[in-house]
Each structure stands twice: as C-alpha cells, then as structure tokens.
Amino acid sequence: MKKLTGSLTLVALLFLFSASPAFAHTHLDTSDPEEGSTVTEALDRITLYFETVIEESAVMELHAEDGTAITLDNLTVHDDTFSADVTEPLENGTYTISWDIIGVDGHPMEDSISFEVDIEEAAVEDQEEENTEAAEDTSGEQTEENEAASESDVQETAVDDTNSNTMLITILVIAIVAIVVIVLLKRKK
Hints:
The protein is α+β, with helices and mostly antiparallel strands. It has helices spanning 2-23, 121-188; strands spanning 28-32, 38-39, 45-50, 59-64, 69-70, 72-78, 81-86, 93-102, 108-117.
C-alpha cells in the first residue's frame, strides 16, 4: 500500500509541476503610462503588457477622476500586449485605466491603474493641432493595417489555444494511464 501511495503522489506531483503554466492566471506586468506615474507630455496611446497571452475580447476604459469616460480608439490585442489610442487631449488631473481581459488560461481578470496628467497649456494646444493633422493623414492607412493585423492575431491565438489544450489533455491522459497501471499491478500481487 505504501508503494501505491508513493506512486500516486509522484504522479500527482509530476502532473502539477508540468501543468502549472497552463493554470497560471494572467496579471498586468507593466504599462505605459505606469501605475502612479505623472504624464508631462500629451498622451496619445495607452499600452498594457500582461504576463501571458490574452484573448481578443479584451476591454479597456479610461475615466477622468470625476467619472467621465474618455473615448479610446483602435483597441488592439497582440499576444500579451493590449493598446489603445487616446482620441482627445487629456486635461490635467487624475485618470484611471481599467481593463477586463481573458488570459490564455481561460480565466477572466479585471483591474485598474491610475496615473496623473500635468502638462503645460501651450504644449496641449500644440499637441491638439498635431493630432488633428496626423489623424487626417493616416486614417485610411490605419484601417487597412488594423484589419490585416486583426486577422493574423486571430489565427495566432487559435494556434496558441490549441497547443495549450493539447498539452493539458496529454498530461491528463498520461496521469490516468499511470494510475490505472499502478492499480492493476497492485491487484496482481
């Protein structure tokens, strides 16, 4: 009986240690802007970097300290990176970025970070003019690039999900077969 218990413990430990990456939850690794930072130049893009690949269904929101929602555009997920364009210049104050994502492990995660904006007024006006000119020049090009990137991201995510599921199923089958063999050997004695 001690051999059977020891064997089952060994199989269980091997299963847990080999499958642990598939069961890890996805958390924020870093961001731009960072948690608690002060932005002193016009912010035109927010980027969140996660510890693992996230799904395309991710949601990001930006709110001013009074609760006003700030419009974000071109939300893009690429592997472990989630980014969005800030469509309007941010006034000085505190802002909160919140997100709701699903990691490669299938677990939904939501959280938020805050940062502060402290920009001189002349810089804000200059940035508004630059944003307007740049938006007029690149709006057509960005749409085509985003569509092509989105199609390739979906294909890559499908491959990653299939690989994770295949590995997990293989480990489970090996563990079950090992347990059955141990039980059958034990009954023969």
